[in-house]
Amino acid sequence: MDNVRPLKAVVARVAAGMPSSEPLTQTSLALPTSLQDLDLDTLPARLDDTTLAMVRRIADEPPPALTRCDERHFKQCMRVMRTTLPSRAAEDDLSGSLFATAYYKSLGHRSNEAISFLLEHALAECRWFPTIVECNAILARWSRGDDAFARHGQATAIVRREVEARFAEAFDALEEGRLCQAEIDALPDQWKRIAAERCLLWHHDDGSFTDRTGLAARDEKQANANGSLG
Fold first, then answer.
1. What is the residue range of 82's domain?
2. What is the pTM of this model?
C-alpha cells in the first residue's frame, strides 16, 4: 500500500491554512477579475492560495511615485516662510529669486504634500528660516498618506499575516509529526531549511528533506498495519 497520502490531501491542508506549491482549484471568495476591484477591507481572516496570490501582487507592486511639486506651489510656501521667519544674516545677501531657485533645486523633487508639510512644521518649530539641511530633517518625518500608498501598505500587512499564520501551522504540524512526505516536499525550501535547523527535518546530501521526529513514520506504519488487517 502506498504510504503517501494523495495530493488532494495536501491541497485540503492548504485550504485550511497549510502552505503548498499546488494551486487551489476553487476559492471561497467571489474574486474580481481586476486587482483594483479587490476590496482588502472585506477579506476573511484567513486566505486561500488564489486570494493570497492576488493580494501579494498588490503588495509586490510599488505604489506610483508622487508628482513632484509644481514651482508655483513651492515658491508660495517659501514666500510664506520668508515672510514669517527671520533670515540669518548670511542669507540676506541673496535676492528672493536666487534664494527660491537654490531651495527649489534641492527640494523641488518633493511632492506638493511634502512641501506643505515642511511649511506647516517650519512655522511651528523654527525660530529662523530653515537651511536646506534643516528642511530635509523636517521632510524626513513626512510620510505618504494617499490612497495608493495606504492600499499597498495594507496589502503588505495582509500577506505578512497570512504567511506567518501558515508558517506557524506548518511548524506545529511538523513538531507533531502530522505531515507525510508529500506534504513536507510541498513546503517552501526556506521553511524546510529552518525546520532542519530546528531538528524537525533531516536535510540530505541530495537536497531532499525528510521527517526527523519519527512520528510521521510511526503513524504511517500504523495506518499500513491497520489497512492490511482490514
1. 71-139
2. 0.61
